[in-house]
């Protein structure tokens, strides 16, 4: 079976970045095969190959009334049989105690669809003794830091199960907690998915440096054996994960560029611990300071208390506006779109868009003061 693999640029814009990363992992047959072989401890999957896996999420997720963008459905061929894999992603520290019921709904939808398809091929087949439904393996990939304590069997969510247990649907789902694996555990798996999981375990940007001591043999294996298309996918996933740590685009690009150029051993060396949220806060403080200074100067010239107050207010606002414009110009020079800039700076898109449009008219000779003057003349900000 030929598998189509598509990738996009590393600048991933998604309000649920972790969901995005997990969906990429379970949607790719190579990474999904590595997950099933290395993280489920199910003997049936030990010899599974990427070509045995088909992503059918696009068919099923529209049917799942309460599905999330990260939920994935794969069809797996084992010999002449088919197994369905439901992969659900949980990031919260708190458990979802209704997970088993959510999975039950998914199972019923898949079996209902399967029966309908078989009926189209063989009228009345579902009523025959020989007809069997395909097995479904529900897996919860858990990225929370606490222990998963929700019941694994649906029956435990129904009262009087000790009396009427034989008449209540009973099935378990498999939980694979990321925090179960140590750094050494993941390194020993020596595959592309382990690298993704290593980075996914990071809690802040400063921890990235801790990966510098990864054995040379590990990165050499990735360098020599990872196919080109998978390098792009890994780069995309890692870009998503680094964005969740508030890493700026420039740093993310450097890391992902080293991945696609097979420079795994270098990707941890030049990385700078950087939090765009904190930098943005400092920048705002600097803008306020500039504004206060300008306001005080205007207030002194005016010579009146009311003038100083108004000058301080106006100067503070213009100082913040001017600083924001300068930040936008820097991002434009790095080929960022208005939407990307708005997300990075956590500013409203309509505010950034107005600055962006005026600035483009000046390209390549950007002038922050002229942009501010034009904005104020239009009473935009």
In words, what does this structure look like?
The protein is an alpha/beta fold and 381 residues long. Helix content is 51%, strand content 8%. The protein has helices at residues 17-27, 29-39, 57-60, 99-121, 161-164, 183-189, 192-200, 216-225, 228-244, 249-260, 276-302, 305-333, 338-345, 349-362, 368-377; strands spanning 53-55, 72-78, 81-90, 136-142, 174-177. A 5-stranded mixed beta sheet has the order 1-2-3-4-5, sandwiched between helices. A hairpin with a 2-residue loop joins strand 2 and strand 3 (81-90). The chain is elongated. Mean pLDDT is 80; it is low at 1-17.
Strand content: 5-15%
Backbone shape: elongated
Report the uncertain regions: 1-17
Count of DSSP strands? 5
Tell me the series of helices and strands, N- to C-terminal: HHEHEEHEHEHHHHHHHHHH
Biggest β-sheet, characterized?
5 strands, mixed
Strand order of the largest sheet: 1-2-3-4-5
Helix content: 40-55%
How would you state the average pLDDT, rounded?
80
Q: State the distance separating the first and last CA atoms.
A: 56 Å
Secondary structure topology:
Elements: H1 17-27, H2 29-39, E1 53-55, H3 57-60, E2 72-78, E3 81-90, H4 99-121, E4 136-142, H5 161-164, E5 174-177, H6 183-189, H7 192-200, H8 216-225, H9 228-244, H10 249-260, H11 276-302, H12 305-333, H13 338-345, H14 349-362, H15 368-377
Parallel strand pairs: 3-4, 4-5
Antiparallel strand pairs: 1-2, 2-3
């Amino acid at each position: 079976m030929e598998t189509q693999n598509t990738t996009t640029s590393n600048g991933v814009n998604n309000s649920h970045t972790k969901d995005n990363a997990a969906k990429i992992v379970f949607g790719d047959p190579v990474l999904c095969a590595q997950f099933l072989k290395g993280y489920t401890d199910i003997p049936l999957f030990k010899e599974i190959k990427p070509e045995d896996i088909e992503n059918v999420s696009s068919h099923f997720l529209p049917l799942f009334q309460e599905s999330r963008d990260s939920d994935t459905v794969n069809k797996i061929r084992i010999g002449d049989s088919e197994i369905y894999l439901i992969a659900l992603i949980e990031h919260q520290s708190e458990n979802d105690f209704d997970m088993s019921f959510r999975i039950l709904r998914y199972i019923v939808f898949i079996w209902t669809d399967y029966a309908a398809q078989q009926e189209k091929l063989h009228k009345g087949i579902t009523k025959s003794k020989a007809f069997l439904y395909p097995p479904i393996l529900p897996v919860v990939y858990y990225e929370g830091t606490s222990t998963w304590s929700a019941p694994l069997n649906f029956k435990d969510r129904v009262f009087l199960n000790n009396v009427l247990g034989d008449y209540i649907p009973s099935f378990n789902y498999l939980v694979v907690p990321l925090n179960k694996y140590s750094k050494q555990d993941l390194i020993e798996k020596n595959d592309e998915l382990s690298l993704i999981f290593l980075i996914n375990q990071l809690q802040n940007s400063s921890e990235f440096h801790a990966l510098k001591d990864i054995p040379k043999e590990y990165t050499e294996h990735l360098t020599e054996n990872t196919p080109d298309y998978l390098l792009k996918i890994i780069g995309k996933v890692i870009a998503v994960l680094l964005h969740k740590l508030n890493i700026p685009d420039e740093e993310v690009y450097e890391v992902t560029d080293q991945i696609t150029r097979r420079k795994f051993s270098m990707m941890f060396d030049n990385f700078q611990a950087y939090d765009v949220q904190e930098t943005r806060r400092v920048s705002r403080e600097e803008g306020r300071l500039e504004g206060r200074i300008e306001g005080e100067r205007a207030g002194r010239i005016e010579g009146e208390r009311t003038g100083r107050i108004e000058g301080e207010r106006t100067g503070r606002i213009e100082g913040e506006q001017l600083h924001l414009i300068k930040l936008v110009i820097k991002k434009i020079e790095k080929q960022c779109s208005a939407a990307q800039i708005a997300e990075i700076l956590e500013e409203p898109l309509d505010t950034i868009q107005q600055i962006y449009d005026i600035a483009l008219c000046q390209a390549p000779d950007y002038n922050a003061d002229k942009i501010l003057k034009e904005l104020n003349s239009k009473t935009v900000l």
